[in-house]
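Appendix B. Worked example

We walk through a single record from start to finish. Start with the input: the chain for Aspartyl/glutamyl-tRNA(Asn/Gln) amidotransferase subunit C, Arsenicicoccus bolidensis, length 98.
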Amino acid sequence: MSSLSRDQVAHLANLARIEMTDAELDTMAGELAVILDSVAQVGEVAADDIPPMSHPMPLTNVTRPDEVRPGLTREQALSGAPAQELDRFQVPRILSED
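Next comes the structure step. The output line below is what the pipeline stores for this chain.
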């Protein structure tokens, strides 16, 4: 079982800019030790003959093929616009151009 000292936890908290009370430091030291032990157990199980993988289930690309399809004409697209100018949607100005 790995153990972290209270000073080590205080140093980590300082690096992360986390302010902790003495009671929180004591509690966190025990919790971080459990986490480190769990990670060490996973490291023991990993074998050299097992290739690393990004996902436990095989995934395939489920997107549709990129095919050209007819879309709206300019007139159809602009037909519902409340205002248009020069074959474009007209919207209120939000930035001033100097």
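Two observations about the output. Strands lie at 84-85, 88-89. The helical segments are 6-15, 22-45, 74-78.
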